[in-house]
Amino acid sequence: MLAHYGYQDASGDFFITIDTGFCNGCGDCADACPAKLFGVVEEDPNDPLRPEPVAIVAGDKRNRLKYECHSCKPTSNRPPLPCVEACKTRAIQHSW
Ligand code: SF4
Ligand code: SF4
């Protein structure tokens, strides 16, 4: 299941998408994110019957991704996003 966290406004799309089919709840994204956007929860809010933990984006951050993620915004001399890089199962996509 694709879990979308974020919003769209006049300046663009600001979404983090977690493919819960690939997420194993390891928490590496939470460790890598400088803005502490991710958490790992035992019960998937989108799939309560899921047997393993899953990553989510913290509720109080979801409507602030443009600002929270600003320090990672891709430029020609900036490396790939830490969250995307940290996820070994390639479960994370960012609208950037
Ligand atoms: S790093 Fe990837 S697999 Fe691990 S908790 Fe985060 S989204 Fe899930
Ligand atoms: S882009 Fe940066 S601040 Fe935003 S979720 Fe990924 S690691 Fe965290």
Unreliable spans are none
Strand residue content: 25-35%
The side-by-side strand order for the widest beta sheet comes to: 1-2-5
User: How many separate structural domains?
Assistant: 1
User: What is the architecture at the second tier of CATH?
Assistant: 2-Layer Sandwich
Q: How many whole angstroms does the radius of gyration measure?
A: 13 Å
Q: Could you characterize the architecture of this molecule?
A:
The structure is a single chain. The chain is an alpha+beta fold and 96 residues long. The protein has a single domain, classed as Alpha-Beta Plaits (2-Layer Sandwich), CATH 3.30.70. Helices cover 15% and strands 28% of the residues. The protein is built from three helices and five strands. The mean pLDDT is 95.
Describe the structure using short key phrases.
three-stranded antiparallel sheet, single chain, globular, alpha+beta, binds iron/sulfur cluster, 96 residues, two-stranded antiparallel ribbon, Alpha-Beta Plaits
